[in-house]
Amino acid sequence: MERSWNSWLWLGFLVVLAGLLTYVPIFARFPITRDFPWVNLLLLAIGLSLIGAGLFRAFGRPQLYRGRIFGSFLALLAVVGTGLFCWGLLVMARQLPASAGAPRVGQKAPQFTLVDQDNKPVELADLLKPQEGKPGGALLIFYRGYW
Question: How deeply is 100 buried, as exposed, middle or buried, from its count of CB atoms within 10 A (0-12, 13-18, 19+)?
Answer without folding.
Answer: exposed
